[in-house]
């Protein structure tokens, strides 16, 4: 079995570790580095619960090998709020807060992936329609909410983020 | 009386049922959709699910049967045992030689045959593909899976049968010699003679042959367990994915052959259950057994495919159904004969579960005679057990499909036919012909509400004709009832001398928000700040024995238990306050955390002061002495005064493309009545999720086996769960008819959507296809199935 020394920057912290060639990124994050926010739901890239940002792009960390991420910046859901994973309800990232206020989560297992996907969606399209939001979440399965309140949350987060960011406030 | 209102309303309302003990409503929390206190840890990733628990645990993985039915000829584990990092490889012989029975308990008392329970590892026979045959424990999860691949099992294949109707045919392969016809249970419900009479006398009989498709619960978190064994105390501690911590404690004790006091079950955050995590499966039992065998913690986390292959699966009925109806639309009788798959083994009470189904067949209607025959049938498939709805969706589907078929036969509007047969508000409590005692209801108000919301009359006129886009529109309603809140729960309310309150319950929240809901209930009862109330669930050493969270029962039963305890605590606190005020307890009222003398409101003692003064009295709730910090404590074993029957009416507008068979749900409206809504936002979330799963059954989901018993839908690539793009916005409205059978006035809501959505969607699609002369299409309504129905109908013309 080949082993590799890799370096990941996870939520701003530099992490050096040795992984096997076959070690999945999600297992490196969870089992080796204790970032248990990304969850494993399907191991086939269908459910999206393991979604993280790799150099700014939302990726499913169960479909990547850890060695492929060598040298990359990884952001997990633990890195979203300014206060990190210890943030209470008053200190959440605007997207997390919108999920909270819109009851966009129930069991919470898909939620880290939903939040990370939504973050990229809103980065690319600050004012998406409901249909566009639904299309962008197609790769993230939620079994609890029926997506209704998830879509509401992303809509509401889009409003908050636009109001925060003067360059996009008010849309076109 | 009911009142219809927008489900989003978050106005404070007085709860129904029994009056609270001396407390008057101030700013009540009950009835407000406050944000959940569970959310922050789930949103930030710091929540701990079972697989998140870090430890030095070894990892367990299973070798599973590759055949649907067969005999094990040999198991060769020599290569696996030699692999570096492998700690042990086990088969049935190892379990058999140990002090543990190693067989998951089965409840056979209601069955017609004696059959063994599910062995944790297969004995000489395997009865479904995916059945655990051997277990491997290794230092890491990758090595464990390598070792699984290295175990060589030889099978003698036996003929398999996977369809419950085919399994009862002459000459079908037999799974158990004690059940030669594969029938585990042959149950009758209702009066056969009276039903026969009703059918003879009726003007018409409408018949349908129905398939209720096999489903997989698909909680997003796979099942997992982390087991430890303490040799000094001879005690197991199992942290696991469970809906029923105490239920799993009892079942694990039985499988391991130890007393319940030797098992502690701790349930951390759970990523969805839907029934599936209420059952006892081999994984947690084998992890515990291995932890004792190896003397170190053992973790087991199922892969998605393993979860799908070992089940439990759900539904899977083949049903013949008939409705006797007069020309004026009066329903006279209902007759049902259904065969329901059990799978290869009965799990717990799973084999007798189909026997519960008949109780809901009356739906919302006055049906004078009903007869139901239910056969539970062994098949070479994963075991079948309760999944969100558990028998109720199957029953309501039959009745609601028949109502539409009867309307079609009579040439009348399906809404009018339903309205004519609805049980009226003044008829409650109402005893149905299948022995259900409905507590309260105002069915017509819910029906009118949904018709208004969707604009039924206008849509009715457009239905059946292709629109401008060439698609056919269909509109539907389906009515339903739902039995909720069975069994008992215990709830403990403990007030510390600093005034803080802890609530301990035997239920378990895995998305339902009990920490929020129970705190709302108790804060209101005691008049203390919401933030002062903590809710604890999920550790059998810390919480009172409970039944668990399933069957839409937690608020009704668990919530009532904590409310009763809170009332006992309040009574004790009022006694202390009365002492301090020097008056009789009867002269003291509780108001927003203050005890006041009647008529002299300036004389008061706060709840917190009463807690501090508690050692001076021994009134009421069990009071702890000074030193342990507990001021008041009460424990209640609560069992409702009968079942609370939730109800509602859902409606859908669909568009069907006659060229491709594609179905689009353009609108979906749910009117639900679950009595008092403690947290309307959480209630609506339950409706959304239930409807989504019900639409999943109607539109896309279906577990499929080939004839040899191999599961074709063994991953999320092939088992089609609803996605954000395949569901519509789900419009919700509420009517409120409190239940008189519990102190909250609540009825359960967890499963309503899974019951209502399948007939709502199928009725709408069949309505859309009426120009083709199509009278029924079986679920799931995939493009292929719909197009097949259209082609078949066109060929027959």
UniProtKB/TrEMBL annotation, chain A:
Pfam families: Fer2, Fer2_2. Signal peptide: none annotated. CDD domains: fer2. The lineage of its organism: Archaea, Methanobacteriati, Methanobacteriota, Stenosarchaea group, Halobacteria. This is Carbon monoxide dehydrogenase. PANTHER family: OXIDOREDUCTASE WITH IRON-SULFUR SUBUNIT (PTHR44379). One of its GO terms (molecular function) is 2 iron, 2 sulfur cluster binding. Keywords: 2Fe-2S, Iron, Iron-sulfur, Metal-binding, Oxidoreductase. Residues 4-80 form the 2Fe-2S ferredoxin-type domain. The keyword Metal-binding applies. The keyword Thylakoid does not apply.
Automatic annotation (TrEMBL), chain B:
Residues 44-159 form the Aldehyde oxidase/xanthine dehydrogenase a/b hammerhead domain. Keywords: Molybdenum, Oxidoreductase. Residues 1-13 have a biased composition (Basic and acidic residues). GO terms for molecular function: iron ion binding; oxidoreductase activity. Residues 1-33 are annotated as: Disordered. The keyword Oxidoreductase applies. This is Aldehyde oxidase and xanthine dehydrogenase molybdopterin binding protein.
